Amino acid sequence: MGRHIGVRGAVVSAALLLAVAGCSGPAAPGAPDAKPSGAASQPAADGKPAGGEVLPGMVDVAVARTQLAGLKVAPVGTMAGYSREKFTHWAQQGNKCDTREVVLKRDGTDVTQDAECRAVSGTWKSLYDGVVVTDAGKMDIDHMVPLAEGWRSGAAGWDAARRKAFANDLTHPQLLAVTAASNRSKGDQSPDLWQPPDRSSWCQYGRAWTTVKSTYGLTVTEPEKKMLTTMLDTCAS
Fold this sequence. Notes:
The chain is of the alpha+beta class. The protein has one domain. 28% of the residues lie in helices and 14% in strands. It is built from 7 helices and 9 strands, in the order ββαββαββββααβααα. The protein has helices at residues 61-70, 99-107, 147-152, 160-167, 180-186, 202-216, 222-232; strands at 19-20, 23-24, 92-94, 97-98, 109-113, 119-125, 132-133, 139-143, 175-179. The chain has a 3-stranded antiparallel beta sheet, covered by helices on one side. Strands 1-2 form a two-stranded antiparallel ribbon. Strand 6 (119-125) and strand 7 (132-133) form a beta hairpin. Helix 1 (61-70) crosses helix 6, helix 1 (61-70) packs antiparallel against helix 7 and helix 6 (202-216) packs across helix 7 (222-232). The longest helix is centred in the C-terminal third of the chain and has 15 residues, at 202-216. It starts with 18 loop residues before the first strand and ends in a 5-residue tail after the last helix.
C-alpha cells in the first residue's frame, strides 16, 4: 500500500503558496494547473478549507459529475517500474515544517507544534471512519489517490517534478490526515475496491478523488467510475 506517514516525502506543488501557522515555503516546478471549476473551495487564512469542507480545492457535486464524465476510461495499468522513491516525499515547506506537519496542523483543532514543527498536541477527526484522535502519532497522512494508483493510471509517464507535485499537493484535495487504521485498510485501492467505512464521507471522498484524477489527467476503470458515480449520488442536491 505504501502510504504510511514515515515513508513519504516530496517537493511541493507548483500551485502551492500555502501559509499554515508559520509553516510556509517556496513552490516547486512541475505542478499542474487547477482546472477551472467555478466552485472550488478556497482555503482560509489559517490554511483550513472553507465552507465546512474537510479538504481544500473541493468542487460541488455538479462540477464533480462533469469532471467524472470527462475522465478517460482505461484498463488498470501495469505496476512495472513502480517505486515510491519515484514520488519524492515529504517536501520541506520552510521553518522546519514538512508536508506531513502542514497537513496535521491544517486538519486538526488546537494543534500545537514543537520547535521542530512536530505536532505535540491537538484533536483530529478522521474523515474515513469518524474516529476522533488526540495523539498525532496515531494519524497517517493519506494520499487521496494513492501513489501506486496514480502510477497505474498515468503517472508512470510523468517526469520526476510532476510526481513530486502529486505527492505533496496541498492545493487540491489530495492529502488529508486520517487514522492509521483506516489508511492502511485502504492501501492503494481504488474506490471500487475500498470505500470509507463511514458512509457519510462518501460525498466528499467521491468529489475529492474525481477532482484529483481530473486535475492530473489520470484515467479511471469502468468499475471505478461506477463506484464514483454511486458516491456522488450520496451528495445532497
